[in-house]
Input
Amino acid sequence: MPQIEVGGAQPYTVTVEAGVLGRASVPHSRVALIVDAGLPAEWVKRAEQAFHPELTIEVPSGDACKTLEVLGGVLSKLALSNLPRDGAVIGLGGGATTDLAGFAAASYLRGVAYYSVPTTLLGMVDAAVGGKTGVNLPEGKNLVGAFWPPRAVWCDPELLSSLPPAVFREGAAEAYKHGLISDPSLLPRILSPGFQPGQPGFEQTLADAITVKAGVVTRDLTEQGERAFLNFGHTLAHALEAVTHHGVSHGDAVGYGMHYAALLSREVGGADLSGHTRRFLEWQQPKSLPQLNFDELNTYMARDKKADSTGVRFVLLHDLARPYLERVPEAVLRSVFEVWQSEVSPAQNLSF
Ligand SMILES: NC(=O)c1ccc[n+]([C@@H]2O[C@H](COP(=O)([O-])OP(=O)(O)OC[C@H]3O[C@@H](n4cnc5c(N)ncnc54)[C@H](O)[C@@H]3O)[C@@H](O)[C@H]2O)c1
Output
């Protein structure tokens, strides 16, 4: 049973094991469970049998739950049930649900214990580990939140069996990114037919992808340095999500964004790792992109918190597992955009 330790002021363990949800428990007598309303009833039943919550709060599926309104409703239910300061909140769902549940735990009574049971691949390899919690505002994503690390995380690969295949492949982008920036052994394993829940070796690959994130956030919880490398591929990805009004999912956008970052790395530093990101896109089969305009995308990239007047700061790669930060001038962003677009546009058909 792979167990990953996450360090910091309040260390915790991430357990990765098929069936672990049935064996999980928490040392609190009073517990509230927050669940994604779209989950199969069987997963909610398993969590209720494990944690014996006094209330289960259903929230809308996906990012529809990450609003101040839904947060307010959840906090009112916690207050009406008189959940005490030594009670606990448990989140069961994808990254959206665990972001909301973690923030509800961080803010209710100025903070109660939080536990996480991610149910998507993205939730397991990324969102549930590292303590970032929060909700969106109409003005933008994740604009309100807190660092509130969980006390424990249980990743039960059995829960992934009900995920739509496209959602599974979207989540794989973050796992592949962990391979590119830190553990290249992950790359062929993620692209192999064995990267499926229930296949031998799946649990270990999942655990190794989580280990990359656990290591980074242990060393740099609040993104003063190394944590920024987790943004590989995300500068273009966030812009793609914004210009398409989230018509492109986060995971698909990260797949596209990693390929752009690899092409930029080749242009700026000479190392050509774009074969890896091209192979990932062929495997991921993201939704095809609409016609895109560089200037519009660049407006969003320039708004990125890593931008200043000399250019947008990108995470690039000197080599596999050798990320670095570099400001890239607009002229380079534009010329590489043309190359990237010629490869990924549906007209060219990169076999998606
Ligand atoms: N906190 C962080 O560090 C961090 C990191 C990355 C992403 N995020 C956040 O994570 C969110 C995206 O998370 P996500 O990709 O996990 O998607 P999600 O939470 O939006 O869920 C996607 C869909 O999958 C469904 N679903 C979830 N688990 C299922 C299961 N086991 N079986 C069947 N259906 C299931 C949900 O109902 C939903 O419709 C975004 O809000 C993003 O901002 C947070």
About this structure: The CA atoms of residues 241 and 295 lie 15 Å apart. The chain is about 45% helix and 20% strand.
